[in-house]
């Protein structure tokens, strides 16, 4: 047998959660200096401090191929940021830099300014969870002004407030490249929303605006709605957790009725109620691009579910509807079941933490039995009293013949090639779980708390 040689090219190296520390980073940095292939390096959760950041910075001055560096959840601090910022004077290849949750605080302004002014190749920067407020936003703002290639800015959990938002907006006025802006959890009120609205009126690039967990309220929603009227660029909007009620929803609906091309809309954790759902359902009938709608935790009852029936019947692209943690009973489940009977696109429906009993679950099951495509139904923590609402024999037969899903994972391990979502059981239950057949796996889907998803990925 003849011999052959193989040349392996390492493009991505993931060392997350390995206790690399500063000492390990030193050896790694030495290897990076002359490396000519590695494009992505993930070092999150490795207790890397400012010294480790210095080692990496020294390597970046000589490295000419690394494009993505992830340092999330370390402790590089202001001193480490200074080293990396100085290295950016010579490195022109790094595109993505994740410095989230790194205890970067008071003195970061000058270093961030230096980084963005000197490195025009950066397209994505993540400063989530550093809590540096104005210092971070000032640095980012200068970067936005000077870096014409920056496409993604993540300032989540930075306590910007309205003052920081004002600084950010001043920079956004001069930017024509950013497509994603994440301002979630920043204590932005209606005043900050008004400032952002002024930018949105003239912006022609932003496709994703994430403002969940702020305090914009109904008035802030009005400002944003006025700015978004006839906006044909934005397609992902997150206004979850913003104290928006029916009045604010009414304002937003005027924008939704215009020429907006929304793909994903998150209004969860507000106070929409049945009245707001009625307004929303009527408005969204004209938004045929919507694929994901999150209305969880909104005090929605059966009348609200009824308002959604015509909306569901007419939608041609909606794939995900989240109604978790509302007040929907069997009557509402009946309305939704009738809508599903005519819907042709829905793939995920969450009714987790509602007030549905065995009767409503049976009605939904009967519809799913003849549903034309795979669909994931989450009914965990309702008022189901029996584990055999849908008998095990029926469930087993349905799984075998309908192939509800196409690929799945149970606690991260693939157990079937015919399931499509990730399912997780309680860790205490996992300890006592060995092999599992499809029948047992899917039994939890209809209300038992043996094997059912507590965490679903709605992204």
UniProtKB/TrEMBL annotation:
Its main location: cytoplasm. It comes from the Eukaryota. Signal peptide: none annotated. InterPro entries: DRC5, Leu-rich_rpt, LRR_dom_sf. SMART domains: LRR_RI. GO terms for cellular component: cytoskeleton. This is Uncharacterized protein. It is found in: Cytoplasm, Cytoskeleton. Coiled coil: none annotated. It comes from Rotaria socialis. Gene3D superfamilies: Ribonuclease Inhibitor.
